[in-house]
Amino acid sequence: MRIPAHSVCTAIRDDIVAGAHPRGSRLTEELLARRYGVSRVPVREALRTLEAEGFVVTRRHAGACVAEPTEQEAADLLEMRMLLEPLGAARAAQRRTESHLKVLRGLVRLGQERARRGNSEDLRSLGGWFHETLAQASGSPALTSVLTQLRHKIAWMYAVDAPVSPVESWTEHGAIVDAVARGDSERARAVTAMHTERATGAHRLRLGSAGERADRVRNSQHPVNTAGLRH
Prior knowledge:
Elements: H1 5-18, H2 29-36, H3 40-53, E1 56-59, E2 63-66, H4 71-95, H5 98-117, H6 120-136, H7 141-157, E3 158-160, H8 166-182, H9 185-200, E4 203-205, H10 210-220
Antiparallel strand pairs: 1-2, 3-4
InterPro entries: GntR_C, TF_FadR/GntR_C, Tscrpt_reg_HTH_GntR, WH-like_DNA-bd_sf, WH_DNA-bd_sf
GO molecular function: DNA binding; DNA-binding transcription factor activity
Pfam families: FCD, GntR
């Protein structure tokens, strides 16, 4: 069975974000095909997509390499998110469906429960799911796509500290959902802007020297599980 290029793309992107492919390192089709257990065709397609997304660059005499973003480029991503997340919430207040509201309310309940228990790992994944659903509720595929790419890139470039007050953070999530449910786009925009600005302060830049990055990858690298790609 031919594994679709988008699945290979997701696997390579996830490994870039996790640091398995260090910034600046070469991405040869042959080695990637062997690593992910696929032919070179879906790898080639995946690399083209990742180049369009900004994770990969093509260099003369070197071919495809993992991009090396500057500190300014990383800072620009946070600024873009602070502008676009509130826009998405405002659109969601106008276009959300009952299905979106059901999922968002369920996530808020779970998040508030986990926050009281202090389970930070659960909170991180729930938070990602919350903001992904909120973007989808905007009814704008283009905006949802941009916000998804921003989240991937920010996760790649930044480490995120746990909120000082997880309960307060999830109270803000609840306020966003309340505004979206009422169709109050201005309130949804304002609360999301405040929440996003507060969350931005917890981001710490990961950028370091090539040697430091290579040491970190060698110490943390783990076998890639591509079983999910074969279904």
